Amino acid sequence: MADWYQKTGEEALKHFDVTTDGLSSEQAAERLKKDGENVLAEGKKKTVLQVFLSQFADLLVLILIAAAIISMFSGNIESTIVIFAVIIMNAILGTAQHVKAEKSLDSLKSLSSPSAKVIRDGQKLEIDSKKVVAGDIVVLEAGDLVVADGRIIRNYSLQVNESSLTGESTNVDKNDETLSGETPLADRANMVFSGSLVTYGRALVLVTETGMNTEIGHIASLMNSAKEKKTPLQQSLDKFSGKLAIIIMVICAVVFGLSLWQGKTIIDSLMFAVALAVAAIPEALSSIVTIVQAMGTQKMAKENAVIKDLKAVESLGCVSVICSDKTGTLTQNKMTVQRIYINGESIREEELDIRLESHRRLIYDMVLNNDSSIVDGKGIGDPTEYALIETSRSIGLDENIIRDTLGRVEEVPFDSDRKMMSTKYKLHGVPHILTKGALDSILDRCVSIATKDGVRPITDEDKKIILAQNNKYSEEGLRVLTFAYKESDEALSVETEYDYTFLGLVAMIDPPREESKAAVADAIRAGIKPIMITGDHKITASAIAKQIGIMRDGDMAVTGMELDAMNDEELDRVLEKISVYARVSPENKIRIVEAWQRKGNIVSMTGDGVNDAPALKKADIGVAMGITGTEVSKDAASMILQDDNFATIIKAVANGRNVYRNIRNAILFLLSGNMAGILTVLFTSIMALPVPFEPVHLLFINLLTDSLPALAIGMEKPEGGLLSQKPRDPNKGILTKDFTALMFGQGALIAVVVIIAFYLGLPYGASAAATMAFSTLTLARLFHGFNCRSKRSIFSLGLLSNLYSVGAFVLGCLLLALVLFVPALHSLFVVESLDGMMYAYVALLAFAPTVVIQIIKAISDKVNKTS
């Protein structure tokens, strides 16, 4: 990368063969084709083939493949075909889900792409930032996001916030001078960098680097090289699969040996072992978990929470601390005028009266001494300035008419040393200098004050009253601007900004979002501690935090400097009392996350800048802002808020808890059903009875009839008490003692009725007995889908409250009916026709476990209501 900060503006322009009139359309198109779009590249992705092949790298899949080969050598070609079809189908499903997730992220990135104002062919145009090329002349104004690195060619008091890149929260004054020698990034005052925000002034900038060649691109490269970690749920399922595979192989070996000892042939013994392996392996488990998560993430996406990492789905249910940014997340990110001090009284904006001369002069100062505008309802420029425009509109004035009628003569832009801005206009033929800025910079320059009765000299008493009013506004967390004017025909300069007439104070704030208060209350009810972290002043942050309920009696607010002064032991002692962190650095954010994690909490952290990326990665759930967030922060995050809204995080927590609950219930359904199959095969093996199931029977159950209720369970709606529960312990796996006991108990109950059905069919032959066992197990598991919807009984839930469950049951019964009643399918599924009484036995036996389970649940519901 060239050291553009060491070159003069003319040298830089010459290098790119461009003038301040910008590139021609043809030049821009050629450079775009040559250099590519101005976007951040992602890390190297797996090809579709690699993703597909990785689906087979599982011990349970390898056992299934071995079972298929054994079936093939035993002459059971149908079972072999079905097993291989199942394995390939699962691999295709897993690959499709991966590709779909990638596409969702790509579409999100396109939504977040900002625009840029460039000069091309001598005309000022607004284009998609992706189309910006090296050599473009970009026009930067207050409020603009810098979309590429560039050398400043013309500077008009430009100030830029580079915290997203450097971590420095203060604005940086820029210039167009040439620097000499090696200069650190933060001190390159004649350069602007992608991802930073223009806060004041304006400038013409020559784009020098785009995309991955920018400074932000270098950080993105480091982020892309980071390896993905397996999620807790994946780790839990991997451990479960590993243990299950070992248990299956041991039991299969025992059953094989037992069968040989009982005098059965090797082929028959192998078929027993294959039946047990197929019964034990929950073939659809990984697909069901993936699909349930995908359905949950789709629901969250509709509510503006895009889940980028599946870790977020399961971990959301465990979140106990949410560290949230203030601006735009808890607040509207829109400055709004709250009070106006004029003529010695504090009024609301709608009380401004244009008929009063002092009010009229204040409105002129607010509208004319202002570089912002509102186009199609969207504020352009500094948020503080277009809040003033909105105030004039609220009383029926059109700022464009006023500005067109009264042209600006001269100006002295705002700068951080003077803390004020002045412009010169002719009002009613009289030259006026209009000024706004900080009270401490303007009040001592005032020699008179405007009142209802006209202008009079300002007194020390007047100044005391004004200062007291300013302090009152500040204590309420309001940002205060001071307005003054003077009638003068002298040339406007820094030297002439004196001898003013004081007009008034305008106090404004970025108000809380309407939904923030309810969302904070929901978080506290859910056992989650909300914390505000902001770069704003402590007083302003505390005022907002009190309004929305984050800061309560006894809570503390600390600044980044106060935090730096504490050691870890001191911080740990007061950590739970601190609700507001103000004026923080990115390093402070990491320390706050680590402090809460030391206490065993699962922490969610919001961020939007490149320098927030380490904190987002450090947090258990990194939450990036979809509107204001940089691409690098989004890459580091687990979840992206498309509306930058705190309430969306709480909705996502509720959805996350529900997704985890549904996954757990779906796993209970699958494993308890499989347990019934295992126990039945084991029983018949020990009792030296014929094989109760063909492999194709178990695959039909596991993949078709079982998958439907499992998916329906995944669609179960959240129950009312989800946000009233404490956050889930992340160290508590799915297979707890209670869960395992429930799985064995329900599985054993179903196994009993299947074994009874098998015995009832034995007098009619082994094939009829196997058909009855298969039919009973299939139907019992379809009924069992209703049991696993919730801990509550079906009477409490309502049978029709989840129509997907009813649909899954009906469709499953139809599939079973096709197998049993269509003769053409009998040979494929190794079944034979039964008589009416046998079908009646199947129906009654299959329904019996659900009756028992529902009676137990109904009793539990009654006990819970009375307790």
Total E-strand runs: 26
Strand residues, percent: 15-25%
User: Low-confidence stretches at least 5 residues in length (pLDDT < 50)?
Assistant: 107-113, 225-229
Cα end-to-end separation: 71 Å
Shape: elongated
Tally of individual helices: 32
Sketch the major β-sheet.
9 strands, mixed
Structural class assignment:
alpha+beta
How confident is the prediction overall: mean pLDDT? 84
How many whole angstroms does the radius of gyration measure? 35 Å
Assign a percent range to the helix content: 40-55%
Give the topology.
Blueprint: H1 9-15, H2 25-35, H3 48-54, H4 59-73, H5 77-111, E1 115-120, E2 123-128, E3 137-141, E4 149-161, H6 163-166, E5 172-173, E6 191-192, E7 197-209, H7 215-224, H8 232-261, H9 266-280, H10 285-302, E8 305-307, H11 311-316, E9 321-325, E10 336-342, E11 345-347, H12 357-368, E12 373-375, E13 378-380, H13 383-394, H14 399-405, E14 410-415, E15 420-427, E16 430-437, H15 439-442, E17 446-451, E18 454-457, H16 460-475, E19 479-487, E20 500-509, H17 516-525, E21 529-533, H18 538-548, E22 556-559, H19 560-564, H20 568-574, E23 578-582, H21 586-598, E24 603-607, H22 613-618, E25 621-625, H23 631-636, E26 639-641, H24 646-686, H25 695-705, H26 707-714, H27 737-761, H28 766-787, H29 794-797, H30 803-821, H31 823-829, H32 836-866
Parallel strand pairs: 9-21, 9-24, 17-20, 21-23, 22-23, 24-25, 25-26
Antiparallel strand pairs: 1-2, 1-3, 3-7, 4-5, 4-6, 4-7, 8-26, 10-11, 10-20, 12-13, 14-15, 15-16, 16-19, 17-18, 19-20
Helix pairs in contact: 3-5, 4-5, 4-9, 5-10, 5-25, 8-9, 9-24, 9-25, 10-24, 10-26, 17-24, 24-26, 24-27, 24-28, 25-28, 26-30, 27-28, 27-32, 28-30, 28-32, 30-31
